[in-house]
Amino acid sequence: MSGRDAEHQQWWRHAVTYEVYVRSFADADGDGVGDLPGLTARLPHLRDLGVDALWITPFYRSPQRDHGYDVADYTDVDPLFGTLDDADALVARAHELDLRVIVDLVPNHTSSEHPWFRAALEAGPGSPERARYLFREGRGADGSLPPNNWRSVFGGAAWTRVPDGQWYLHLFDSSQPDLDWRNPEVGDMFESVLRFWLDRGVDGFRIDVAHGLVKEEGLRDQVVPEGSEPGSAAPTGGSMIERTLRDEPMWDQPEVHEVYRRWRRVLDEYAGPRGDRILVAEAWTQTPESMARFVRPDEMHQAFNFSWLLAPWSAEAFAAVVTGTLEAVGPVGGSPTWVLSNHDVIRHPTRYGGGPRGLARARAATLTMLALPGSAYLYQGEELGLEEVDVAPEHRTDPSWFRTGEAGRDGCRVPLPWDGDAAPYGFGPGTGQPWLPQPAGWGPRSVAAQQADPGSTLAFYRAALAARRTFATTAGESVTDLRVEGAVLSFRRGPVTVVLNCGSEAVPLPPGEVLASSAPAGTVLSRDLPADCAVWLRDPAAR
Ligand code: GLC
Fold first, then answer.
1. Rounded to whole angstroms, how far apart are CA atoms 42 and 529?
2. Are the C-beta atoms of 515 and 536 separated by less than 8 Å?
3. 207: CA distance to ligand 1 center in Å?
4. 3-state secondary structure at position 9
C-alpha cells in the first residue's frame, strides 16, 4: 500500500472528530429538540469548520431518561429525532461533504423499556430472560438489602428491587439495567446491531462505557479504605472520570477485551473504499496503560484520552499527559487521542476560570492539542467559545441531578445558537425556548455573528484546523524537544515548534514564522508570547 493509500485507509489516525449532541445541535421540526434532519441541514457548518468526522450521540428509540443513553431499540430511530430514512439521508449527505459518521453504541445497559428487560420482569427469577441482565437475590434475612455495596455512577445504590423480591444491577440510572455480558445471547445481539449500522454505511462506533461491560464474576463487594464510601463518583465537573486507584470489580475486567476483539473482526470485514470502519472507546480507565489495552492492534482503533481533559492549567501537567500518553499508546501501535470537552463534563473555558481568561486558556489548550500526534475530538459549541450555562434547577433534566441533587451535566448541553439575538437563536423554527433554555445575550456567540467576524473563536478554530492540515497529519507519531521551563510548555512536531504559556507574564518567543496562534486577532506575535496563549512556529529552514 502506498503512503497515500495507507493514510486514506487509516483516516482515523489523524482525524479531527466533532461530537454532535443530537438533542442540542439543530431542530428541524420545531419541537425544541434537535433532530437528524436539523443536523443534516447544518452539516455544511462542519465542512466549513474543517473537521473530518462527526460522532452523533444516541438517536435510537429511547424513553430519554438519560437522553438516549437508555436504548429501547438499537435498530430504529426515535421519532423525536426522525426516521431510519432520515438517518440514511444524514449518512449520505455527510459522505457527499467528505465527512465520516460515527454513531454511538450503548452496550453496557439497555433501557428498562427494552423488550428484553420487560420480558425479564415478566418471566421471573431463574428464567433465561432474567439471565440477560444481572438479577440477584438480596442480602439480609428477607433479602431486603442490595446484593452488594456497589453505587450507581449517578448516585445512590446500583441495585433496584423488583416486586418479586429480586434485585437488578444498574451502574447508572435505575432505568438503565446492566446486561450480563457473560451470557452469549448478549454478544450475538450486539454483533447484529453493529452489522445493521455498518450495512447502512456508518464509518464507526463510539462505544459507551466500554470498560464496564463485564463485571468480576461473583459480583463481590467493592473493597474501600476504612472511612471512605464505595462508589463511582458522580459525573459532574469531570469527576465521572477522575478516579483514584481503587478496587473496582465493576470496571475494566480482563474479559471485556474479548468483546472488542470480536467486534474488530466484524469491522475489518467492512473496510472498504472509504477506508477503515472504526471503534472508539469511552473507557474511564485508571492509568494510561489501562487505556492503551483498549487500543491493542486487534481491539479498538482509539480510546478517549481523558487525562488531557482532566489536566489542570499547568505546563507541567500538560507535559506529563503528553509523555504518559505517547509512552503508553506507542508500544501497542495505537493512535493517541486528545479531548477537552464532551457532553458529560463542564465546558473547558469554564473549567479554566471562565470569562475572557477562561476563553484565552481554552483556545490555547485547543491549539496545543491540535498539534499533537494522533486525533482530536471536539465538542459542539466549543468552536463558538461557549461556556457552561448555569441551568436553573427547575429546568435540569440530568438523571444524576435527580439522584444526587448536584447540578449535573445540563449546563454543557444547552442548544447551539446559530443566528439572531433571541432564543432559539436559529436552533429551530419559532420563537420559543428549546428543551434547555438558552441564555439571554447569546447573539454575539452565534455561528452567524462569528462567521462575520475574523477575530471570532469560530474564525480561530477554522484557521487552526486549516493550519493543522499543513503539518500535523503528516509529521509522524512523535513529539521531540518536549520542555517545561517555568510555566511554559514547548515541543516540536515535525517542522513546527509549539509554545504554550501557562504563566501570568509574557515570555520571549523563539524564532520562527507564526503559523497559528490562539491570541486575539490582530495581536502581532513578534518577540513575546502573552500569558494564556499558545503559538505554532514554523522553522524557517523547514519550508
Ligand atoms: C456515558 C455517556 C453518558 C451516559 C452514560 C450512561 O458516560 O457519555 O452521557 O450518561 O454513559 O450511558
1. 36
2. yes
3. 10
4. helix
For residues 204 and 188, give the distance between their C-alpha atoms in angstroms, rounded to a whole number: 18
The overall pTM is greater than 0.90: yes
Cβ atoms of 425 and 352 closer than 8 Å: no
Query: Which DSSP string corresponds to 465-523?
Result: HHHHHTTTTTS-S--EEEEEETTEEEEEETTEEEEEE-SSS-EEPPSSEEEEE-SPTT-
Rounded CA separation 140/515 (Å): 67
- Name beta bridge partners: 534: 500
pLDDT bucket at 285, cuts 50 / 70 / 90: confident
**Cα 117 from Cα 113, distance rounded (Å):** 7
Element (H, E) at 206: strand 204-207
Report CA(84)–ligand 1 centroid distance (Å).
Answer: 23
Is the pLDDT score of 513 beyond 90? yes
- Which of 137, 269, 390, 421 is an active site residue? 269
Known active-site residue 477: no
Annotated catalytic residue 513: no
> How many Å apart are CA 241 and CA 291, to the nearest integer?
12
Atom of ligand 1 nearest to the CA of 400: 10
Q: Which residue has the cell 425556548?
A: 433
| C-beta of residue 343 within 8 angstroms of C-beta of residue 19 | yes
Distance CA 174, CA 382 (A): 32
Instruction: Quote the pLDDT of residue 244.
Output: 53
Work out whether strand 496-501 and strand 533-538 pair parallel, antiparallel, or are unpaired: antiparallel
- Ligand 1 atom closest to the CA of 154, numbered from 1: 10
CB neighbourhood size of 438 (10 A): 20
Sign of the alpha-carbon dihedral angle for 493, 495, 501, 507: positive
pLDDT confidence of 107, banded at 50, 70, 90? very high
Quick check: 418 and 38 in contact, CB under 8 A? no
Grid coordinates belonging to 484: 517545561
Q: Whose CA is nearest to atom 5 of ligand 1?
A: 69
State how far the alpha carbon of 269 is from the alpha carbons of 8, 113, 334, 419, in Å.
Answer: 17, 32, 20, 43
**Ligand 1 pocket at CB < 6 A:** 66, 69, 106, 172, 208-209, 282, 343-344
Looking up cell 510548555 gives: 489
- The separation between CA 171 and the C-alpha centre of its own chain, rounded to angstroms, equals 19
What is the pLDDT, as a whole number, of residue 542? Answer: 66
DSSP tag of 425: T
Centroid of ligand 1 to alpha carbon of 209 (angstroms): 7
